[in-house]
């Protein structure tokens, strides 16, 4: 462990300051707006606190004074807390409270004042507080289910940082170590802090990029109004499901078209029409499961693909038709919404392209509209020619 005990504490603190400055410059050069603007500014504030604190501790090292140690150490606590909260926000953590690390930082700061009265235990309090915040950040990283290699690498950095701070806290309490002591546990804690400065900062920048890429992919495949798949994404997923259909399985396609939807926009305005589409999309999502593919494939047209034969498809379609009739507009309570639904099924032993399946489903939808709307019509294929069979209709 001679490699650690030979390192100079003041040099490490200055290196941490330089690392923070580099990270801040990279973040400012990258820039971030939109939904990430607030968390971006918060992270820069966190790193600025840490950078200033490293300078203050470097100049006041060894002197447990108000400005030399207490204030900058508290700044380090709250800098880590802000950073933890920003990472939890980016990772969409719904379990850990965003205020938890600030509570740890506040308690640690209060204990720090007490520790100055008993001397060396100050290192134990400071490192113990940083260890707890590092544990919070590790949990915020891995609790959400989407865990990329970047997330696991950041987890490793913060886990190592937390473990080293735990060891440093131990020698602070058990061996009365001070910040000037060159015990290998003490210096190891400062070395991992430097690694955290570089790796955590660059990792946050890459995490921002990863989240931006995820949003771009989501925007490219999702209808912004309803949250369902858009036209392209739906038929891409439907084609994959149809191509991978087992020989013994059945697949059904539902085409749902809102009746007289243009009148809603013309009579009540486009905001009312958007509200109708949102409510219908929510009802379709509520009647789907993880095996369903649901999308908004046109202005007022939706589609659903799921495993099941004609009987299950007609039952599902009738449930959807009835559910659509419950759509209400708060400002226009007299409006009633209905839908016409075409149904087409394909058996696993039949070879059919997605275009042929859609064509048959559209045929059934047109029949439902021509027969008076607000009904479900099934199309089946016999000898390659479609025939129409009405399975359910409104009274």
By helix and strand content, what is the structural category? alpha+beta
Count of DSSP E strands?
Answer: 6
- Describe the biggest sheet? 6 strands, mixed
The residue fraction in helices comes out at 55-70%
Please give the alpha-carbon distance between the first and last residues.
85 Å
The total domain count is 2
- Low-confidence segments, given as residue ranges, are 382-395
Mean pLDDT level: 85
CATH domain fold name of the largest domain: Rhopdopsin 7-helix transmembrane proteins
Write a structural description.
- This protein has 395 residues and is α+β, with helices and mostly antiparallel strands.
- The chain has two domains: 2-220, Rhopdopsin 7-helix transmembrane proteins (Up-down Bundle), CATH 1.20.1070; 231-393, 2-Layer Sandwich (Alpha-Beta Plaits).
- Helices cover 62% and strands 12% of the residues.
- It is built from 13 helices and six strands.
- The protein has helices at 2-5, 9-30, 37-59, 66-90, 100-115, 121-142, 149-174, 184-221, 231-243, 261-268, 270-286, 310-324, 354-370; strands spanning 250-258, 293-296, 301-307, 339-347, 375-382, 385-393.
- It has a six-stranded mixed sheet with strand order 2-3-1-4-5-6, with helices on both faces.
- Strand 2 and strand 3 (301-307) form a beta hairpin.
- Helix 10 (261-268) packs across helix 11 (270-286).
- The chain starts with a helix and ends with a strand.
């Amino acid at each position: 462990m001679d490699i650690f005990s030979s390192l100079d504490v003041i040099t490490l603190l200055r290196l941490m300051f330089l690392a923070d400055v580099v990270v801040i410059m990279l973040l400012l050069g990258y820039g971030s707006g939109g939904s990430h603007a607030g968390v971006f500014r918060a992270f820069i504030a966190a790193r600025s606190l840490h950078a200033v604190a490293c300078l203050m501790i470097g100049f006041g090292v060894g002197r447990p004074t108000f400005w030399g140690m207490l204030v900058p150490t508290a700044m380090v606590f709250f800098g880590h807390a802000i950073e933890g909260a920003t990472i939890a926000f980016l990772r969409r953590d719904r379990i850990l409270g965003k205020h938890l690390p600030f509570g740890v930082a506040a308690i640690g700061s209060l204990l720090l004042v007490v520790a100055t009265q008993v001397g060396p235990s100050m290192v134990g309090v400071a490192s113990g507080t940083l260890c707890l915040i590092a544990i919070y950040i590790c949990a915020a990283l891995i609790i959400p289910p989407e865990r990329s290699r970047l997330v696991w690498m950041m987890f490793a950095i913060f886990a190592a940082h937390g473990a080293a701070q735990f060891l440093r806290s131990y020698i602070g309490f058990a061996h009365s170590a001070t910040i000037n002591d060159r015990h290998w546990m003490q210096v190891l804690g400062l070395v991992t802090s430097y690694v955290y400065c570089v790796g955590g900062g660059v990792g946050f920048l890459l995490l921002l990029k990863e989240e931006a890429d995820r949003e771009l992919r989501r925007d490219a495949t999702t209808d912004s109004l309803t949250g369902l798949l858009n036209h392209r994404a739906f038929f891409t997923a439907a084609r994959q499901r149809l191509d991978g259909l087992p020989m013994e399985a059945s697949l059904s396609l539902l085409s749902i078209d809102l009746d007289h939807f243009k009148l809603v926009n013309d009579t009540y305005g486009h905001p009312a029409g958007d509200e109708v589409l949102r409510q219908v999309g929510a009802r379709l999502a509520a009647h789907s499961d993880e095996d369903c593919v649901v999308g908004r494939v046109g202005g007022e047209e939706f589609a659903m693909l799921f495993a099941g034969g004609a009987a299950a498809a007609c039952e599902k379609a009738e449930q959807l038709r009835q559910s659509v009739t419950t759509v209400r507009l708060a400002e226009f309570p007299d409006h009633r919404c209905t839908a016409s639904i075409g149904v087409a099924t394909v058996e696993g032993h039949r070879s059919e392209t997605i275009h042929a399946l859609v064509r048959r489903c559209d045929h059934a939808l047109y029949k439902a509209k021509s027969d008076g709307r607000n009904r479900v019509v099934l199309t089946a294929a016999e000898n390659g020619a479609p025939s129409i069979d009405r399975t359910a209709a409104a009274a």
